[in-house]
Task: structure prediction
Amino acid sequence: MRSIRFMAAAVAALSVASAATAQTAGASSADRIRAHMSFLASDLLEGREAGTRGYDIAAQYAASQFAQLGLTPAGDAGTYFQKTPMTSFRPADEGRMVLRDAKGRETALAFGQDYMVASNPLKAELAVSAPLVFAGYGVVAPERGRDDYRGLDVKGKIVVVLDGAPRAFQSEERAYYRNNRTKRLEAEKRGAVGLITIYTPATEKMRPFAQSAKHWRNWNMTWRGPDGAPFVVAPNTPSLGTLSVEGAHKLFAGAKVPLERIYAAAATAEGVTPRFDLPASLSAQVRTELVESESRNVAALLEGADPTLKAETVVLSAHLDHEGVREDAKPGEDRIYNGALDNAGGVATTLEVARAFVESGQRPKRSVLFLLVTAEEKGLVGAEYFARNPGGVTAVANVNLDMPILTYDFTDVVAFGADRSTIGPAVRRAAARVGVALSGDPLPDEGLFTRSDHYRFVEVGVPSVFLMTGFQNGGEEKFTGFLKGCYHKVCDDLSQPIDYAAGAKFAKINYEIARELTDGAERPAWNKGDFFGGKFAR
Ligand SMILES: [Zn+2]
Result:
């Protein structure tokens, strides 16, 4: 059924295309990119925030485009929409943290000065009282022969860890190890009942505690599974809060190694510190405000032509949501986060790639899924929902587009993660066919490989890259200029000097990459011995 339906649609598309050529030139690829971006980034969509009507209109638009191309609905019950049930959560109040020393004397920590409270999507009321144990950075890295838990018994205790990870680690691996999820998983494996993160002087320099404390009531989001329960990594070892350098000093009062010495050791390249039981125990109370909501991913399938390979699906993703409207705008001020580059540009590119597949008249061998995800801006939530609830789809590779800088005629591209799997060489070949170079990661310290939707596929073992326009031909200035300028600001709108021909070129490259992956003899694979392949491949 599916394939017959697709073929009919493709033939129809081809004949329409040639009929149009006979009379008029029709819209060029650049025109179509402009048209998609003009709609998606218009004020009417009010910033496409997940869970709002503006987002739903954007989703309906994308579904309509996929339908016009004759692609197969790949969402729930024969639709293009995959419902994503979600829970928003934030601290309900300032919480409470009380230290009790060996003599039973109690000291209440000061909210906003000593600590910031966490929030917990699983429980509105959480109270934990337990002894404290310090575990350095909380890193367990067998590939480096490192275990910060060696010699410690943390069962039934609250684990205290330093924020961050040692600077000797490769940037993307460092990003993995400094992630709160990774740290809580390791603590949970060993039976800890909670996790406290403490600031280091380096953290304080990067993002001052007082500054972060201002945002303590920002909403977080996660998705809910079929049983209605919010998805949480390491549910038995919740985050209880974050301590400032000042708060950490109170925690370490009377400790067998003074905190200053810990900080000095932590600042070395390998960051190995003494680890030990702290003299005090802690009572923490965390109260959480919970709100259930719902959004949806948009998914369309082009089934592969090869009877065996069609079971393997290459996922092309881009996030459809953005930041909504500015609450603190004054009357008369622009209040809409249009998200033209972030990520109407990535969505427009994906729609254009879908069209290129259909108009090629040549079905791919493997299947291709065009996936527009929700709630990226809330923590890669829609992508995670799909990656962990893929229905019948077996994803074998993911190419993700997020915020391509389409304001100059780029001559190179960057694929974050290219060195980790066979997708890298495929990207190089594909880009070369369009006369564009593949460059190395120009911002290794940013750890960008772990910071967009493709990483949710990495976490379930799927080789992935995140494709971006490169730094050559003025790209560096455009990229860093955008980050300092309109990134996540209301001026990321259509008044920017967008080069729609560059958008068309970007779509062409993405089509060529997808072709490499769908039609290649070998299924995309992690490189032998790759760090992320080793951590997550199934
Ligand atoms: Zn963004």
